[in-house]
Write a structure and sequence with these properties.
2 domains, seven-stranded mixed beta sheet, Rossmann fold, alpha/beta, 17 strands, Quinone Oxidoreductase, Chain A, domain 1, 11 helices
């Protein structure tokens, strides 16, 4: 695919074939890639330094067709899932298993690690919504797909499943806790599902689209509420939690949250802040005193309106991060193998890569009850 500007994406058959640029590189022939909710932030023009000609896509799996001279742990012919984080495995942050904060993969930034296909703010790497992609640090990120695993499950382990799981993990959920998830996109759906794995006693999901709420209600066996039908989501959550607030709130929305006119205008229309922070406001104001707010929603790397006084006065703990996919993959693979998580059940649309523009249109406009879109290259 080829980004031509906001709301303009097209298939391009004349893209140059990726080459080995470093001895630790591999070239991967893509079998599956996904359109992610955070890709829509790029598509809508909300992420700085998203350059014309970029190839998006940070969720993909494929077959290795070439490797650099230093690569030892994977080989030509291996079918691999590639974490969306580009991580060297050797820097100070990787040694702490903070693979989403790798410094070597994006050394010009102190605020973001390297990510496939996610603007020059995260290193300027081309992504996997393509037939072939260059994968740096091939001995670190790529993980061989087990023979028994469905490719549709594998592609969702590159971001959605570990990100949803880490959203719940960062919440520090205790036995019996009430957990509120803002956002019923794929990440919010998976966060709600995984909240039960940590012992939640009650899981609530807030969104504005009924079809997504019906999906997560079935997939994650949780309570759901449409905020358009609530006078004030924060007051509502307080009322249903004995006036105390939720134990844990998860922001799985990020920069394009709806529900507040000022935030929408400043963050989505005028681009004067790093996105609309409505969901983050609701999370901070809905959590109990001493509670935890977990943030996996993506915001731009500029200032944003956040009620920090409420954070301090309520004694809230905030935990936020890009998911460390490599750290979590072994556990996620086991959960899929044991039937605890069924990632592919979230896939509603499988679209040929040649029709990527239409795929973005469907996903962006929430048409045809779209939850998760998988792109399939013609050579797959």
């Amino acid at each position: 695919m080829n980004f031509r500007g906001p709301f303009r994406i097209r298939a391009d058959r004349d893209r140059p074939f990726p080459e080995i640029e470093h001895p630790e590189d591999a070239i991967v022939k893509v079998i599956r890639s996904c359109i992610c909710g955070s890709d829509l932030h790029l598509y809508h023009g909300l992420v700085p330094d998203t350059r014309v000609g970029s190839t998006f896509g940070h969720e993909f799996i494929g077959e290795i067709v070439d490797v650099g001279s230093s690569v030892e742990k994977v080989k030509v012919g291996d079918r691999v899932m590639v974490p969306f984080n580009i991580a060297c495995g050797k820097c100070a942050f990787c040694k702490q298993e903070l693979y989403g904060q790798c410094h070597e993969a994006n050394p010009q930034s102190t605020a973001a690690g390297g990510i496939f296909g996610y603007s020059h703010t995260t290193g300027g790497y081309n992504g996997g919504q393509a037939e072939y992609v260059r994968v740096p640090y091939a001995d670190v990120g790529p993980t061989v797909i087990p023979d028994w695993m469905d490719p549709d499950d594998a592609v969702l382990l590159t971001d959605v499943v570990p990100t949803g799981y880490q959203a719940a993990e960062m919440g520090g959920i205790q036995e019996g806790d009430t957990v509120v998830v803002f956002g019923a996109g794929p990440i919010g759906i998976m966060a709600a599902k995984c909240a039960w794995l940590f012992g939640a006693g009650r899981v609530i999901v807030i969104d504005q689209l009924d079809y997504r709420l019906e999906f997560v209600k079935e997939f994650a066996q949780c309570e759901v509420y449409n905020f358009k039908h609530l006078e004030d989501p924060v007051v509502f959550i307080k009322k249903i939690t004995d006036s105390l607030g939720a134990d844990v709130c998860i922001d799985a929305v990020g920069a394009e949250a709806a529900g507040d006119t000022m935030n929408t205008m400043l963050g989505r229309k005028l681009l004067m802040q790093g996105g609309s922070t409505t969901a983050l406001h609701w999370a901070i104001n809905s959590v109990k005193k001493g509670g935890i707010v977990s943030i996996v929603g993506v915001y731009g790397p500029i200032d944003a309106l956040v009620p920090i006084g409420n954070v301090v006065n309520k004694g809230i703990t905030i935990r936020a991060s890009q998911a460390s996919v490599k750290r979590l993959l072994p556990k996620m693979i086991e959960h899929v193998k044991n039937g605890i998580i069924d990632p592919k059940a979230m896939i509603t649309h499988r679209i040929p890569l040649e029709e990527v523009g239409e795929g973005y249109h469907i996903f962006s406009k929430k048409l045809d009850n779209c939850i998760k879109t998988v792109l399939i290259p013609p050579s797959a």
